[in-house]
Design brief:
155 residues; alpha+beta; 5-stranded mixed sheet; 5 strands
């Protein structure tokens, strides 16, 4: 199926992009990064890579990472969100850094990085997913995402 082939290509590209842009290497200076969401679960469609960083000083870590990413000049746009002093019901308490990069595929890719004190929920979610998901389920989710039947959930 074309959609599944394209999803597989996008997953491979996303992983190469993470490496090429030194995303994890940069984030490791500030805490313990973990790739989550559709890349980790291999149900990737939308060009949106989700990462959480576990750290005890989330403000310091988020500001340091932002400065490092700005210096790298690898991104065309940066967004920074404070969900500590400005909490939102549908967001975790932490800081978010959105990085935008135009890939060699000509498409705009977004890296959404959350800096949190506790990432247990996301670790458990990935473990649960790995235990319970079958290949056919993954395929069905990808096809439904591509058709717009499933809305991509933001943390």
């Amino acid at each position: 199926m074309e959609i599944l082939t394209e999803s597989s290509r996008r997953i491979k590209y996303a992983k190469k992009l993470i490496e090429k842009l030194s995303i994890m290497e940069t984030l490791e200076k500030y805490g313990e990064p973990l790739i989550i969401g559709s890349v980790a679960m291999e149900v990737f469609w939308k060009r949106d890579i989700d990462i959480v960083v576990k750290t005890s000083d989330i403000r310091w870590a988020s500001m340091g990472a932002l400065e490092d990413f700005l210096k790298s000049k690898n991104f065309s746009k940066y967004q920074y969100g404070d969900m500590v002093d400005y909490p939102r019901e549908d967001r975790p308490e932490g800081y978010i850094l959105n990085l935008f990069h135009e890939g060699t595929d000509g498409e705009l890719w977004e890296m959404e990085v959350w800096f949190l004190e506790d990432v247990t929920y996301y670790e458990e979610q990935l473990q649960e997913w790995e235990k319970n998901i079958e290949a056919e389920d993954r395929e069905d989710i990808i096809l439904r995402k591509a058709k717009g039947d499933i809305e991509e959930k933001v943390l």
